[in-house]
Amino acid sequence: MASWFVFLTQRALRFRRGRREDHTLVSRCCKGNAKNKKLCCMATVLVDGKEIVLPDGQKLNGIQVARLAGTDIPHYCWHPGLTVVASCRMCLCETGTRDPATGKVTMLPKLVPACQTPATDNTVFVTDSEKIRNARAMVEEDLLIDHPIDCPICDKAGECLLQDYHFEHGRDQRRADIRPFTSRRREMGDTVTLFVDRCVMCTRCVRFTREISGDAELMVINRGAHEEIDVFPGYPLDNKLSGNVVDLCPVGALGDKDFLYQQRVWFMKKHAGVCAGCSTGCSITIEENQDRVYRLKPRENPEINQWWMCDEGRYGYHHVHAEGRQTEPRRIVAGERVNVEWSAIPRELNKQLREAGRIAVAISPHLTVEEAYLLAAYARSIDADALLALGPVPVIGEDEKFKNGFTIHAEKCPNRRGVEEVLKHFTGGVMSFGDFANEVASGQVGSMWLSGGNKKSDWIDAATTEKLTAAKVIVVQDLFTSPAWEAATWQLPGAAFAEREGSYVNHANHVQSFTWAVRPPVGVWTEGQLLWRLLNRPGLYKARPVMQEIATTIDYFAAAAEEVPPTGVKLIAKKQIPASV
Amino acid sequence: MKPDDPNIAWLEAPRLGLADRMYLPLFFEGLTTTSRHLIGPKMTVSFPEERPAVGNPLIYRGVHRLNKDEQGRVKCVACFLCATACPAHCIDIIGTESPWPDREKYPESFVIDELRCIYCGMCEEACPVDAIELTSLLDLTGRSREEMIFDKEKLLSVYDQTKDAEPMKSKSLGGTV
Predict the structure, then answer these.
(1) Per the omega criterion (within 30 degrees of 0), is the bond before B14 cis?
(2) Which of A192, A304, A430, A439 has the most CB atoms less than 10 A away?
(3) A181 in contact with B at a CB cutoff of 8 Å?
(4) Do A456 and A549 fall into the same domain?
C-alpha cells in the first residue's frame, strides 16, 4: 500500500518540478532615479534572514514575498486572484518585526498564516523551523484523516497539492485508519463533478463563483467536520467560466467531465499556446499525448486573462480530432476529383495559379500573422494587382463581461487585427469578405484562394459560394467540408490552431507567439509550410524569422522584432487603439 | 600494451608426448563421461509431452492474467500504474467510468502485447489492487502476431484457467484480497 503511494507522490513531484512556473515579480522602484528614493517608502522585509526590498506601492503578502526570496510556502486556500480567507492553515509561519533603529527583532509567540500577513516595512518572516514543520505536519494529518485513498483512480494524482505537500511536509506514518477507499460523487453541473470526500475545504471554488464569475452557484453546506461543497437545488454550476473551478481545486475534488478518466496527467506534455476561441486571445497551455490534445488550461497572463479562461475556449479543441476532418488534398483534373501528393502541390498549383490570370485571396482571421503575411506576399509575387481581402469574420451573439472584467468576445476568431494590419501593409486598406465576393463575381478574377482554419462548415453559404465560382481556379484550404470546399478545384486540408506556429494579435493589439503543440493529421502540411514551399524559400518553415521580417517591414509589428515574451507584447500604445476595437 | 612490455610473461606450449599425440588419453576420458551419463539419472524432460517443474509459482514470471473480484468483475481500476511502470510500453489501457455503483473507474479495454513484453514483473509490483499478476504459464505460442496481443477477455480467461492451480498471490504476500 505504502509503495504505490510513494510511487505516485514521487511522480507527482517530478511532474510538478517540470511545470512549476516562474512567478518572479519584477521589482521596479523609483524608475532608477536615486533622487526619488527618499520619496518612495521602500519596504524592507526579512525572509529567513534574507533581506527583500519591495518598491513603493507593491502590496504583497508573506507567500508572495517568500517567493521573491526563493522559498515556497505551502498553501491551499490562498490564490493570487481571490480574496484571502486564511482557512487552510497550511501557510502558517513565524512572523515578527524588526526595530529599524536598533535592529532588534521581536517575534510573535504564535504562528500566523503568511497569506494574511502583509509584507510591510521591517516585517520578519521565518518559513522553516521546528514549530512550523510540526504545524504543517499536523495540518496534513488532519486533512488526510478522512481523505479517500483512491489516488490511483483520481485524475488529480500527479499534480495534486495534497500529494506534494504530504510528501514534503507530512508525517511518514499515518496514524488514522486507511479508509475510506472511495469517494462519494455529486454532479455540480454539465461540466463539473464533485468528489465530495476528496475536498479539503479550501473554498477557492466558492470564492471564484462569487468574486470572478459572479453567479455564486457554489456554497458550503453543514459545519465543522461535516462541511461540504454543494449547489442549491435546481441551480447547477452552469456559468461560462465554470471550468476554472477545476483548475483552482488544489486536490481532486472538482473534476472536469470533459477530461475525466481520459488520460493520466504524467503522460501529457504541456505546450504554451494561445486560445483561438475568440478575439480575447487567452494564454493557454495545450496538454497533449502522442499528438492528441486532451485538455486546455489557462496560463497566467496579467495583461489578458489573468488566471482564467472561458468554457467555450476550454472545450473548443474537439474539432482538432473531429470526425470528418479533411486530410487528403484533391484537385479536379479533366472533370474528375483526384488525390494529389503533397510534394507535387507547390509546383502544380503554382503553375496553374500563374496561368489563370488575376488572383484573389481571402485571408482568414484564423491564420497566424506569419501565414497571412506569406499568403499575401505569395499572391503579390504572382500578380502585383492581386485582390487581397479579409476572410469571413465569425461574430456570434454579443460580448459577455464578467464580474471581474473578464470578457468573452463575440468575434470568434483569434487574429482579425493581425490579418488587417498585414492587409493594410499590402493594399492600404481592408476589404471585407462581402466586397471580395462581389468583386470575384464580376468576372475580373481568374483564380481565387480561400484560406480557412474554420472550426465548422457554416462559415460560408451557398449564395456566396455561387458568386465565388466565377473564378476558374478555386483553391480552398480548410479543416472541414463546406459549400466552398465542394466547389473548389483544389481542396487543400489545413491546420487547426494547436498545429499552427506563429503569432496572434488579439482585440487589444496584444501579440502572442507560440509554437505547435501537436502535429497535423498524417501528412497534412500546415498553411505556413505550404506557403513557404510556394514562395520557394530555402529550408523549413519557422515562424520566428518570418515575424522578424514582418517587424522590419510593417511598423505596426515593430515591437515584435525581438523575441516575444511568453505573455506577449502590446503592439501600440493604448490611447491609439480606435474606440471600436 | 607493447609486445616488449615487462608485464607480459611469454609462455611456451608444453611439448606433447607420444600418447598425447595419438589422442588416446582424451579419447578414453570422453568415453568415460559418455558412459557415466548413460547409466546415471536423466537431467532433461521431453517437452512438451512432459512439463518441467516450476520451482515457486509465486515468483515465476510467465503469461499475465487479470484477476477477478468476488463478484466476478475485473479487479483492475484502470489507474495506469502498470502502463506507467512498464519499461517495454506493452500495456495499453482505456479507462472509463464503471457501470457499478461501488466502483468509480474500470478498464474499458486492457491490452497487453505479449510479444513486446519482457516479463520483468514491474506491472505486478506497481498494481495497487493486485489485479495484474504473472502466472507460471511458460509456453506461450501463437500462429500470428495478432494472436499474441491479449485483450481484457483473454487475460481474464487466463485467470479462470489458472486460478485453481495458482490462487491470487496477494493473500500470501500480504496485499489486498
Answers:
(1) no
(2) A192
(3) no
(4) yes
Task: Please tell me if residue A180 touches chain B, with a CB cutoff of 8 Å.
Answer: no
Closest chain B C-alpha to A196 CA, distance in angstroms: 13
Residue A462 phi, psi dihedral angles, 5° rounding: -65, -35
Cβ-in-10-Å burial (0-12, 13-18, 19+) of B148 comes to middle
Answer yes or no: is the ipTM higher than 0.85. no
Query: A405 is written with which cell numbers?
Result: 472584467
Distance CA A478, CA A495 (A): 8
Could you tell me the pLDDT band of residue B75, with boundaries at 50, 70 and 90? very high
Residue A475 and residue A377 share a domain: yes
pTM (two decimals): 0.86
Q: What is the pLDDT of residues A191-200, one digit of tens each?
A: 999 999 999 9
Q: Is A273 part of a structural domain of the chain?
A: no
Query: How many domains is chain A built from?
Result: 3
Sign of the alpha-carbon dihedral angle for B94, B99, B105, B107 = negative
Tell me the residue range of the domain where A190 lies.
186-267
Q: Is residue A514 part of a domain?
A: yes
Q: pLDDT digit string (tens) for A62-82? A: 999 999 999 999 999 999 999
Query: Which cell numbers in the block locate residue A441?
Result: 463575381
Q: Which grid cell is A105?
A: 527583532
Q: Is A225 among the domain residues?
A: yes
Contact B105 A182 (CB under 8 A): no
Phi-psi region of A179 (alpha: psi -120 to 50; beta: other; left: phi over 0): beta
For residue A54, which of A112, A115, A107, A118 has the smallest C-alpha distance? A118
Task: Please name the residues between 120 and 149 in chain B that touch chain A, using a CB distance below 8 Å.
Answer: 125-126, 128-129
